[in-house]
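Per-residue structure
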Amino acid sequence: MADLHALDDHADLLGPDDIAQLLTHHSQVLQQIASGTPLPQVLDGITVALEQLISGSRCSILLLAPDGATLQHGAAPSLPAEYSAEVDGIALGPTAGSCGTAAHSGVRVIAADITSDDRWDDFRALALPHGLRSCWSTPILGASEQVVGTFAVYHDYPHTPDRRELQLVDRFTYLAAVAIDHAALYGALADSEEQFRRLFDDNAVGMALIGLDGRLGRTNDALEHALDRDAADLDGVRFESVLDTGSVRPWQEAWSAVVSGETESTSLQVDLIATHGRALTVMATLSMVRGHRDLPRFVSLNALDVTARLVALEDRRARREADIARSTAEAASRAKSEFLTTFGHELRSPLQAIIGFTELFGTLELDDVRRREALGHITGATSQLLAMVDDVLDVSRLEAGRLPVSLADTAIGAVAREAAELLRPLADRRSITLDCDGSLDVSAWTDARRLRQVLINLISNAVRYGAERGTISLRCEPIEADTVTIVVHDNGPGIPADLLDRLFVPFDTLGAEGKDGTGPGVGVGLIVAQGLCEATGGALTLTSDPGQGTTARVTLPLAEPCRSGGGSGESRVVGRTQRPPAAE
């Protein structure tokens, strides 16, 4: 490498502007080197910087090839690409142009006029077509004072460099040497790091180097210990031979992906068979190791024993499942307790009414009018009890798949109006209007009794929780895809968004109290309604906008008047098949 102190002997040849630019360019290049900028970019920056200081110049840097006998392209941003390609790989020699000769002799070569310089006899035909008339080349000496490349300056006219230009070239040649040595050093360090990273003798993880033929080469102590075999016993053995039968195929696929170049690295879980048949599970990572010119050399194997980890995971999974089962059982127990408490409360009111009016018959002489009123109250309370019991039984039948249904062409309008009339007294007490639209006059293939049960549930909920003096409307949406949809809408306060997902949870009353003075209910009405819709081939969904009311949609198969039997029914026993979402 050139001596900077020797270069300083002629520092007076450089003017203040030269020195300022020189310092700026040096600073920029050194920053690039420090930041790890790739060598080609650094060399480009050096050549461009010198071109700015020497008028009319075009510069190039050639690097000594690994074979030590040729020069390779390093940088030539201003030279024609065709010319750069033609001199790439030029051999060193005493008459090899300026660069080949300078690299061969180790001293600067100045060809003031390429047309007459005999060192250019074999290369003149390459340079002149590109307008190159002069070339002087300085050998770049590395830290060991060996030639590592050349720095050439071309002009489009005959030219002999002056002392200023020579000094500038020496400065930038030194800078190029620093960049090349730095790149070589870090390249060697990178190679060393790669080799060191692959050295694995003391690694606790089982490791091996496997040839491209699939045979084990070097193995470390951890892998040998895991397989209960020594290095000599494993050397040359195909790795597949230590695999459990079930792991051979996945291993072959992973191996093929790495060796073919489809991927540089892959991982998979395989089972190994050690001496005496002992099995162990490992997470195997295969990585391609490349050598000179990036050619594949061998495959590195990391085999992390996860046998104990899998056992621990399985134990944790079993404990987690037990915790879930316990939590589920506790939740079911709580739900049952809450249900029994609520159900008992709901039963008490109609039972008290029955008992009270029954006592009247035993203690008082009632005239016909009062007797009929008392019997009416007893009948109403009894019906309420029966409906509650039926709902609970229906839940059980649905879950058990034993709910009887009888499907037939059903007039929706008649069923809807009947349900509305049954609940009109309850609605009148809250000044709620029940409106049955004419669009209801269509037919569906369903169970009329079950449909009435669904609509009574939906309408009663709307009455109990809707707005006083509000409106509950029943209508049908336009027919689509051989289905008909019944819409029950109220203009009440709506259901909070965070409660929508709980609408179809059995025995969950959402903590709501009926606005008609009743309690929260048993919490099975909607789950029964949903199950009945599913059981008859339909679906129930609910949407709600707080402050805008709640809308229930019952979608049923459209009736087919042309069914065989002229509308004769179909009876069967069904259960719940799926749970549609509470809201869309």
DSSP finds 15 helices and 19 strands in the chain. Residues 2-11, 514-520, 562-567, 577-584 have pLDDT under 50 and may be disordered. The domain at 401-574 is CATH 3.30.565.10 (Heat Shock Protein 90). The longest strand covers residues 279-290.
